[in-house]
UniProtKB/TrEMBL annotation:
GO terms of molecular function: transmembrane transporter activity
Protein keywords: Membrane, Transmembrane, Transmembrane helix, Transport
Membrane topology: Multi-pass membrane protein
Listed InterPro entries: Atg22-like, ATG22/LtaA_families, MFS_dom, MFS_trans_sf
PANTHER family recorded: AUTOPHAGY-RELATED PROTEIN 22
Protein name per the record: MFS transporter
The keyword DNA repair is annotated on this UniProt entry: no
Membrane-traversing stretches: 12-32, 38-59, 71-89, 95-118, 130-156, 176-196, 239-261, 267-288, 295-315, 321-343, 355-380, 386-404
Chain ranges of the Major facilitator superfamily (MFS) profile domain: 1-408
A cellular component annotation (GO) from this entry: plasma membrane
Places the protein is found: Cell membrane
Amino acid sequence: MLAWASFDWGAASFQAVITSFVFATYLADAVATEDGAVWITVTNALTAVVVALGAAVVGQRADRLGQRRRTLLVLTIGVWICMALMALVRPDPGYLPLGLVLLGLAGIFSEIGNASYYAMLQQVSTPRNVGAVSGFGWAMGYVGGIVLLLVGYFGFIAPEVGWFGVTGEDGMDVRAVVLVSTLWFVVFGLPLFLAVPETTPDHTLPRLGLVGSYRVLVRDLMQLWRVDRNAVRFLLASALYRDGLAVIFSIGAVLAVSVYGLSAGDVLIFGVAANVVAAVGALVGGLVEDRVGPRLVILVSVAALCLVGLVLLVVSGPTMFWVFGLALTLWVGPAQASSRALLTRLAPPGHEGQLFGLYTSTGRAVSFLAPSLFALFATIGSERTGILGIVLVLLAGGAVMLTVRNPRRPAEAADPAAPPAVTTS
């Protein structure tokens, strides 16, 4: 379990440094002369298309061939290479295409790889503690992001002359943080590949090419709809509310500055504090989930996110953003960790990778919804009223989630020591 969670700790370098607080911001502000945010949005959209088309098939093939760990290793090496090459991107518009390509490729490798990584949750947990293990892993990711952001900020970005004599000239402070982040991911990502065993291939199934894999995927989706509509409803619900969560992460820093008056330095410190709060939320939520079931944790988290979002519509100033922004992040961790645990309970044994691939694909398939509604409400009113678009997507996800039942895995039913299954509907 520790080796598996160590990967979450290491992968935080990509989420916190590359896509959220450091490299993407550097690309938009220092490398691009204009429309930097637009170019990053276009890159993210293209990434979403590739992930939506490929994640489920890659997860399915990894399950069938018994190559879950190998698939994750290959894709993670791709992320490491892209991150290392990002250090070559200088604050010059001529480097923008390189930065965008690397950002897009790394995003594709990371998200498709997550299908196999999430599927491994079944290998490192039991039906009785899957919620706690998932929450622990997610908390490790948040804490890893905290530590790395602090190292990057105080070691390279804040001082005029940082560690190893690095300065801000030619973007070297950011480029150095990118290299440190790459090394961080390598060091803390490797234990998983050394300690978690590979899955066993199913020799009764024929080997399939790419076209055959898509045919099997379509067949399995139709079968899933016939025999387990609960899983289909959860995939739809999670796609909606996770889209809302994704927009919170992508524009939260922008709104903090433009609407609530935080300085750029304060935003980075807020990011550290937010990760601390989210880690606590994920850890506690995972422990509670093993007692009450993941469905209730998700519903309470989504309801709380909607309520805090509505409060942020009417409050103003940095102090109010600190209070309610941190309250918002408290519920993000439980929603994410419990979603991963619920799908682990839903997945038929031997098909975890495929179902987590569908989880990734469905999330990407609706990834246009929350950004579009945010833009619509922002155009009608202001950036502040754009928050209402995010709340509506979260509400839609919560509404569909009300139709999802807590799953009970066959292994749990066979375990005489397991607690009674929750049968809420």
